[in-house]
Design goal:
The complex is a heterodimer of chains A (about 350) and B (about 250). Chain A contains 13 helices and four strands. By secondary structure, chain A is mostly helical. Chain A has a single domain, classed as ABC transporter involved in vitamin B12 uptake, BtuC, CATH 1.10.3470. Chain A has a two-stranded antiparallel ribbon with strand order 1-4. A two-stranded antiparallel sheet of chain A has the order 2-3. In chain A, helix 2 crosses helix 11. Chain A is globular, with a radius of gyration of 24 Å. The N terminus of chain A is likely disordered. Chain B has a six-stranded mixed beta sheet with strand order 6-9-10-3-11-12, with helices on both faces. In chain B, strands 2-1-4-5 form a four-stranded antiparallel beta sheet, covered by helices on one side. Chain B starts with 7 loop residues before the first strand and ends with a helix. The relative contact order of chain B is 0.18. Classes of the chains: A mainly alpha (about 350), B alpha/beta (about 250). The interface between A and B is medium-sized, with 31 and 37 residues.
Chain lengths: ~350, ~250
């Protein structure tokens, strides 16, 4: 009796394991495919969206209109690149819109003193980076549990400061020729602002992917406690991401001031929501540590395309907001689905290990 | 003939947390090529002792000797510089990074050396190659080398964390309940890995509640109870019951 029981027990795991292996190899292939689809999903949706809109309205796919989309997207894209770095570390920067407005006002004030494109640009970039530094330092060294509140506070402070500093508390016309040309001119058939975005994107791409600092950003976002245990300078990494986010808002200010040839305390209203939406729609994880710059760019273009297309189709502006909101819900659910699939993959791994 | 000093020796360690006397004059030694099991019930002081060795806490009194020399271990980074690596129960892995990226996170191979570490450029291929070599040597099999560790099973993750520790450990590897969260088969693989570490001449300190594992692997076992060392012996089948009695404090 005892012997037979032992035999059965000896043989059964093998059979069961073989069967499990058969089943799980199919299952994990499916999961791998789903994860791959999720990772290219946003780009796929963007292409399908552009194709569909092109069929609906012939005006959409004309070079002139595409140039428009690029010019309109440039500001969101630039600021979203900075926002994406912050979100990678599980953070959020709500101050980018007000930060940008303050930067354009400071640029305008400098322009009233000296007509120098270089100086005005430097002033805007510096103003943006400084606000970012305040965010980062207050968050890290003020030991705040989350950057939400501090960036909400700087949002309010920057908007108020911009309104206070702006002459007449409103839009100030005029920009140096060098900056205005950025908004007006085109090269190789593309608006000049495109090349600014491309330059910023290339720089951040190198920093995030090839530099040790970039690896640390992913580590801090992936597992903050482990990053401390592994001796990564977590505080320094966090502060630099907020400085860079602020700097990107400053560069966005240059682009916007160039296109409108003005500085205004009213600029960048709700830009923080657009940039966060761009990063999430593009496919980066709100939980930190996942995503790359392509996600921020794809998301920004998708927002630009949706706005442009709904304008061309004559759809009410309120519906644009609803559409973008719905897409954000989809994107966040996709993130949840990805986490679930990864957990499934983990279980299958354990079952399959010989 | 002189025997070499133990690679790690603790002498009369004392640690208090307010009114709690967590370690009471604990002494122990760890030798190269040996597994030392650290046993005790919950709250016996195992974790406190390990945290003092790995630089998380500082001892109130007593000393830590490495290869016979007294050292002061003020931080986890300092412990690592001394060649002591600890694998905690939470593994401290980065789910979003690949095994090789996990191996070198915080200690990246990068160039040029005149720049501060954060600004250097990663040598991704060198890190991949060396991490692969280590995993190969330790006979750790992973489904994919380029996938984030989030996709790997508990045992595979444990193996990665242990393998990472061995890359940098020059003196001591401390494993805090490495099999606690694993099934039978995956536990087996981690135990094989521990045996492999010993065979390569590491001093291994193993914290576990599993008596079978202790008897199978440990060359010596130190038992703590209420912050005091209550026994040290070579664990065998014959004295298993005695060991358990020491842990729970029941004089059978």
């Amino acid at each position: 009796m005892g012997r037979t029981v032992v035999n059965v027990a000896d043989e059964r795991p093998d059979i069961a394991a073989d069967a499990a292996r058969e089943r799980t190899s199919g299952g994990s292939a499916l999961i791998a495919l789903s994860l791959r689809l999720l990772s290219i999903g946003p780009l796929l949706i963007l292409v399908l969206l552009a194709g569909t809109i092109g069929l609906l309205t012939p005006a959409f796919l004309t070079p002139g209109n595409l140039g428009n989309i690029v010019a309109q997207t440039a500001v969101i894209a630039t600021v979203a690149i900075g926002q994406h770095l912050v979100i990678l570390t599980r953070g959020i920067d709500l101050s980018v819109g007000a930060n940008l407005a303050l930067a354009t006002v400071i640029g305008s004030l400098v322009f009233r003193q000296v007509d120098s494109a270089a100086l005005v640009m430097a002033a805007m970039a510096l103003s943006g980076a400084l606000v970012g530094a305040v965010n980062g330092i207050a968050y890290v060294y003020g030991r705040l549990p989350h950057p939400f509140i501090i960036t909400l506070a700087t949002l309010s402070i920057c908007r108020g400061l911009a309104l206070e500093l702006a002459v007449g508390h409103t839009t100030m016309r005029g920009m140096p020729e060098g900056i205005a040309a950025l908004g007006r001119s085109t090269s190789f058939g593309l608006p000049s602002s495109f090349f600014v975005v491309a330059g910023v994107a290339a720089l951040v791409l190198v920093m995030a992917k090839a530099m040790v600092w970039g690896r640390w950003i992913y580590a801090v976002g992936g597992q903050p406690e482990a990053a401390v245990q592994m001796g990564i300078p977590v505080k320094g990494v966090l502060v630099t991401t907020y400085v860079l986010s602020g700097l990107c808002a400053g560069i966005g200010a240059v682009i916007l001031a160039g296109r409108t040839e003005a500085g205004s305390p009213l600029y960048g209203n709700l830009l923080e929501l657009d940039t966060i939406a761009a990063v999430i729609i593009g496919g980066a994880s709100f939980l930190g540590g996942r995503g790359h710059i392509g996600h921020a760019l794809v998301g920004a273009v998708m927002i630009g395309v949706i706005r442009n297309a709904l304008n061309l189709l004559g759809v009410d502006v309120f519906f644009q907001m609803i559409a973008i909101g719905l897409i954000i819900v989809l994107a966040v659910e996709a993130d949840v689905l990805r986490n679930w699939l990864e957990a499934r993959a983990r279980v299958l791994q354990a079952a399959r290990a010989p | 003939m002189t025997t070499p000093p133990p690679v790690l020796a603790i002498r009369r360690a004392e640690k208090r947390f307010g009114a709690v006397h967590a370690l009471k004059s604990v002494s122990l030694e760890a030798h190269r090529g040996q597994v030392l099991a650290l046993l005790g019930d919950n709250g016996a002081g195992k974790s406190t002792l390990v945290k003092c060795i790995s630089g998380v806490h500082a001892l109130d009194e007593g000393e830590i000797l490495l290869d016979g020399e007294a050292v002061a271990i003020h931080s986890p980074a300092a412990a690592r510089r001394f060649g002591i690596e600890t694998v905690y129960q939470d593994l401290a892995l980065f789910d979003n990074l690949t095994p090789a990226q996990n191996f070198y996170c915080g200690r990246e191979i990068a160039f040029p050396s005149w720049l501060p570490q954060g600004l250097r450029l990663l040598k991704g291929r060198a890190m991949d190659r060396q991490a692969a070599a280590v995993l190969d040597r330790l006979k750790v099999k992973l489904p994919r080398f380029d996938a984030p560790v989030a996709l790997m099973s508990g045992g595979q993750r444990q193996a990665i964390a242990v393998a990472r520790a061995t890359v940098f450990a020059r003196k001591v590897v401390i494993l805090d309940e490495p099999t606690a969260a694993l099934g039978v088969r995956e536990s087996r693989k981690v135990l094989d890995l521990v045996a492999q570490l010993r065979a390569e001449g590491n001093a291994v300190i193993l914290i576990t509640h599993n008596m079978e594992h202790v008897i199978e692997l440990a060359d010596r076992a130190v038992v703590l109870r209420q912050g005091r060392k209550v026994g040290e012996l070579k664990p065998t089948r014959a004295n298993q019951q005695e060991l358990v009695s020491m842990i729970v404090g029941a004089e059978a």
